[in-house]
Design a protein that fits this description.
By secondary structure, the protein is α+β, with helices and mostly antiparallel strands. It has helices spanning 37-44, 57-66, 113-126, 142-146, 155-197, 257-263, 311-318, 321-330, 342-346, 355-399, 405-412, 420-429, and strands at 6-9, 15-17, 27-28, 32-35, 54-55, 75-78, 86-88, 96-97, 102-106, 149-152, 208-211, 216-221, 233-236, 241-242, 245-246, 252-254, 270-273, 275-276, 284-286, 294-295, 299-304, 332-333, 338-339, 349-352. It is elongated and about 85 Å long.
Length: 430
């Protein structure tokens, strides 16, 4: 920390509290918007929010007259769930918020609001403030935030730091947007390859249409037992199915010997996701591992005839846009979920050819998608580095090393410059 900075606690420079409790019975269909973490997260990302809850004008005015209300320049921070999401209130449009979910920083003195906002994001997520001994439950409390050590630079330096962070983040965000656009283009390219493959264009193969049922022995649902964080054997779920293969991160487990014996996966097994959000129903992967694993109940194992059908060919087909279109026609829609059962799966139309020709088509697909996989990994690595760079920028900013010596000298030459120790004394004397 620089010599003209000083460390303070947040209670010294702002008032930290929450809202007055609003009961569910006090919600109304229109009136003053009532925010939870969900809405604050949307606001922090610059999104247009979808307001779902309101309180009456009368209730709002009663709170305003008897207590206080959020105002422009105040900062809100999420306290449970995804902790550390911050939002600086941009105007004095009336709203209120849920106690417990959000903590409210008001009467901010000596700190530029955006500097405080960025600092909270950095320190809350990276300090030991959330570590709770003997408990798996973490929450940000008013007391924890009150005692959080916080660097206080001269006010003119705060403004210069904020300006530089925003410039660097703007450049970073532009690069991230380009990377995500490239990711979207890879998705389109993957589907274009699969489309041509199952129209016979990659190998000039003549395909006839049959149904999957003609090439499989049976379909089988996975274990219905709840999987755990620890156990003898992994239980593969929808999240472990990525780009037609198995992702071995974020695993759940079981020690149920009966289930392990019944649902153990064999090399080459094909798994079909039968129920989830509409965009994930029909997601298919092939098990190409000697690792032991079983599969969850919302997955279907397709027991296919290996003398007539290639597992890779079937997997690529079920992940193709052509198969998705058929799936959308037969799926059953529920509340936020869709379902394709085993009976419907067996009736999927399947463009088919000889086993030898299937292997040729798979080879042509993989020769193209291997390049795609390499580019996709490079993009994922770049996105990870961009996130690390964002954290590095914040770290330097709050250590006092982000500004160059020339930029610091310019700050000190400003007529409004004063060391942070003088600034803090003025705050304490108010």
């Amino acid at each position: 920390m620089r010599e003209d900075w000083i460390e303070c606690t947040l209670r010294e420079v702002c008032k930290i509290g929450s809202s007055k409790r609003i009961l569910k019975k006090e919600y109304v269909s229109e009136g003053i918007p009532f925010y939870r973490t969900k809405e604050i997260k949307e606001l922090s990302l610059g999104k247009e929010i979808s307001i779902e809850l309101y309180i009456s004008n009368e209730k709002y005015n009663d709170i305003k007259n008897r207590f206080d209300i959020p105002k422009k320049g105040d900062v809100l921070i999420s306290a449970v769930g995804t902790i550390g999401i911050t939002y600086t209130i941009k105007n004095n449009d009336p709203f209120y918020f849920k106690d417990g979910n959000l903590i409210w920083l008001s009467d901010i003195q000596g700190l530029e609001s955006t500097f405080l906002n960025l600092g909270l994001t950095h320190f809350v997520r990276n300090s030991s403030i959330l570590k709770t001994s003997g408990s798996a439950y973490n929450a940000l409390t008013i007391e924890k935030l009150n005692s959080l050590p916080f660097p206080l630079p001269p006010l003119v330096q705060q403004k210069a730091i904020v300006k530089k962070i925003e410039e660097l983040f703007s450049s970073l965000d532009s690069g991230i947007a380009d990377l995500k656009k490239a990711q979207d283009q890879l998705v389109i390219y993957r589907q274009a390859v699969l489309k041509k493959a199952f129209e016979g264009e990659l190998t000039k193969t003549k395909l006839k249409i049959s149904v999957i049922e003609d090439f499989i022995h049976s379909v089988e649902y996975g274990t219905s037992e709840k999987s755990l964080n620890e156990g003898d054997v992994p239980v593969l779920r929808m999240g472990n199915m990525q780009n037609g293969l198995i992702d071995w991160s974020d695993l759940k487990y079981t020690s149920n010997k009966s289930d392990i014996q019944k649902y153990i996966l064999n090399y080459g097994d094909v798994l079909f996701n039968r129920t989830n959000s509409p965009e994930h129903v029909g997601k298919t992967s092939i098990f190409l591992s000697d690792n032991k694993a079983i599969f969850a109940g919302y997955l279907i194992r397709i027991n296919y005839d290996k003398e007539k059908l290639s597992g890779k060919y079937l997997t690529y087909y079920l992940n193709s846009h052509k198969a998705k279109i058929y799936g959308n026609e037969v799926k059953t829609d529920g509340v936020n979920q869709s379902n394709i059962n085993g009976t419907k799966l067996k009736k999927y139309p399947l463009p088919i050819c000889s086993l030898e020709e299937q292997h040729q088509i798979v080879q042509e697909i993989e020769s193209r998608l291997s390049v795609c996989d390499k580019v996709e990994k490079d993009i994922a690595d770049s996105l990870e580095k961009a996130q690390a760079l964002r954290q590095s920028i914040l770290k330097k900013a709050f250590e006092g090393t982000l500004l160059s010596e020339e930029e610091i000298a310019k700050c000190k030459a400003d007529a409004a410059y004063e060391p942070a120790s003088v600034l803090l004394e003025k705050i304490k004397s108010n």
